Amino acid sequence: xxxxxxxxxxxxxxxxxxxxxxxxxxxxxxxxxxxxxxxxxxxxxxxxxxxxxxxxxxxxxxxxxxxxxxxxxxxxxxxxxxxxxxxxxxxxxxxxxxxxxxxxxxxxxxxxxxxxxxxxxxxxxxxxxxxxxxxxxxxxxxxxxxxxxxxxxxxxxxxxxxxxxxxxxxxxxxxxxxxxxxxxxxxxxxxxxxxxxxxxxxxxxxxxxxxxxxxxxxxxxxxxxxxxxxxxxxxxxxxxxxxxxxxxxxxxxxxxxxxxxxxxxxxxxxxxxxxxxxxxxxxxxxxxxxxxxxxxxxxxxxxxxxxxxxxxxxxxxxxxxxxxxxxxxxxxxxxxxxxxxxxxxx
Length: 346
Hints:
Blueprint: H1 5-8, H2 12-31, E1 34-37, E2 40-47, E3 51-55, E4 62-68, E5 70-74, E6 82-87, E7 90-94, E8 100-105, E9 113-120, H3 122-131, E10 150-153, H4 156-170, H5 176-208, H6 212-222, H7 230-237, H8 241-250, H9 255-273, H10 278-284, H11 290-301, H12 305-318
Helix pairs in contact: 2-4, 4-5, 5-6, 6-9, 7-8, 9-12
């Protein structure tokens, strides 16, 4: 099951590459759950139960690929706010020296949590600093900011780089220099992707003054599964929480409604494709509960997600792709989404 929106909408060649990566990691798991060669140290984690892990201070940076389930990252202690949720197909980069509380959660359908982690030795960063000085503007995780974890989707370049790394680790007697080259390739692809995300965030920030609703929706669309809160969005857009709420209020919309509307539009896109189940869509759009998602979807659209999906599948068979009309809202306006039950941010 793919649980990230970008994975659900990906082209078939990327889906095939993701499958090849999972298979390669499975072969590595069968060979050994942990190991190392050259500058790479890796570990495969498998669990059928929810686990909480406290990390006082990592001695080396980690690159963690989520294969099944989710990893929740608490930055403010065990009772603090969840700041990141890494789901299947996402990559979590954790710098050294940061205290963290991590919770590994099994996939609700498969009942397992699986991840593949690579520990980076200091020589990796030194090599990147020498080879790419304009990218690696500071020491640490190959140029990533060293004061917080980073969450990235597994885009095609990073999937291919990981496939090359894992297949090289599977080779008997693979030369350390070759492994170092593969590892450097992985970090470089992730670093370039990180830079692209920073550019996108800056673009959204520049849009804030002109159209705050578009800026928020653009930011949420990049990662709808993230547990977005207004302070997080405001920080990413370079304004205060109060300023964000004031500018949205001037447009006649609240952050809560805007977040739900964006997730609703994305959910409808996924459901119309007919290729994904309700739980997949709910998780991709930021819901941990398919029933909670279905409840809010029905209140908005007048039908359940399953019924919506079935109607569009039938319409596609008949050559008709129009949306069914939404239920009449208060005052006789159809399809308006202005008041929501409960908290859609989960």
